[in-house]
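Q: What structure does this chain adopt?
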Amino acid sequence: MDRNQVIGFSLLGILLIAYVMYNQHEQKAFYERKQADSIAYAKAHPRPLVDTSKTITVADTAVDSATLALRALQPPAYNGSAQTVTLENGKLAIQFTTKGAYPTSAQLKDYKTYGKQPLYLFNGGGNQLSAVLPVDNNRATNTLYFAPQIKTMPNGDKSIDFVADMGNGKKVDIVYTLPADGYMMSCSISLTGIMAQTLPLSWQTSVLTTEKDITNERMSTQVYFRNKDAEHDYFTVQGEEKTLNNKSNAAHWMGVRKQYFSTALIAEDGFTKMDSKYGYKPGDTSIAATNLAAMDLPLKTVGGTQFAALRWYIGPNDYRTLKSYNIDMEEMVPLGVGIMSFVKYINRWVIIPIFYLFDSFINNYALLILMMTLFIRLVLSFFTYKSYLSSAKMRVLKPELDELREKIGDDQQKFGMEQMKLYRSAGVNPLGGCMPMLFQLPILLSIYYIFPSFIEFRQEGFLWVKDLSTYDSIFNFGFEVPFYGDHISLFTLLMTASSLFLALYNRNMTPQDPNNPMMKYMPYIFPIILMGVFNKMAAALTFYYTCSNLLSIAQQFIIQKYFIDEKAIHAQIQENKTKPPTQSKWAAKLEEMQKMQADRGKTPGRK
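A:
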């Protein structure tokens, strides 16, 4: 290699080195300018531009800088980090995530779990509200990053305005507003630069267990919905996953109701579609139930944007609170179902007003139950008196019935006809003791439904009872006893004992039919059977029935001692016999049927 070649290659090397150094300098200056522009944009739109949950440990090479620059050039909605924002008032504390702009947890401040821990209706990743947008191959809002802005209104209401800037004039705006006091949160969804007639929603809910008995809590967990035509229905959540298909596809609201708490999503203009999958995993004792609902939310144009309004209830199953919203949400408080659905009207118009009347001036709920029991027994005292009066008439007639039975012998049909004649001549109605009791039965059934549903009894103690809303236990077996349970409820034992004593007292005061000896044991068998049924019932319910039995015994004693004179009744019966008998249509029909049956028995060839 000669001198000229050496000089030429040296110059080429110097030029190459200079070019590389210059290129690196210009590339670094370029990325610095881009980063400066990104910082300026971030100040104008306050939100993180990179995913800070991921730590970059790679050396600051040209390739890594290029990746960072490409992220910086993306619209803010596609690049960010998930942060938590809280919106709260005196009753609720709701946490939201900026990735998706939906609530992830809800704490009810006025309530505690059975274990006295802060009560969260839902909390964690199993809770989500997402909408599918007709852009970017149907991108869901739970994949977008939102910039939050919290505001406090002059009236004390608080709101969070979540904005997702998708670039090219496309924007999603979700605003949650929590009132200064209350459980109903409003939510508005606005789309700018995105045209759609309906917005598909996905609402996922995992409600947590909060009560003592998870089995009873799950039995009381249901998916409720109300259509725009005011028709409503519910489905009880069971272990296996089930699907709810709303046939009308015109739902006004849907809610997941637990024993004492609910969460419900209400569409101001209704949902055009609503389906749901619900269930629970039996082995997971932390979650009472899960629900995944698919809804279509209609949009309307307001000021050049697509807009929809929602409301979100997160709170207790308090009858007055739910009723105040005037959208039939109080139906989530079970007042009577199935064949006993008629008692919900008794609860709605009689029992509930009485309860809240006493609740307005009585702070102790055990005393309130006692006062309600006394009030109801006094109101029903007329029917009780009529029942005991009829029993007294039957006792007065018992000697004559015994003579009649001895005279006729074993011919039951003839004895029945003669017995009806005796009753008619004496002016005695054989059903007089049963009909008044039938009028009291709906009240007993009404209490059976409403007392375990009243949240007012929750965590209210009395004597040895820590919580009137669940069963009281004085001893746990540690194992399950068939048809009874794993514990002993003292109020259930007291209810059973008072029922047996009342049955014995009534037996001594009521004439017995010697031809049907099994009937005399039925009043004792029934309370024993109910002891197993009520062993897991709310202590408020068994306490009420215990008080009712004790008051019935006292009432019966007072009526029979001070208001019923059997000698006067006997004299009146004898006087009635001298009067022309007046036969009711029912008695005449019964006597006619007995005659027809007797004639068929005398027909030759019949056995």
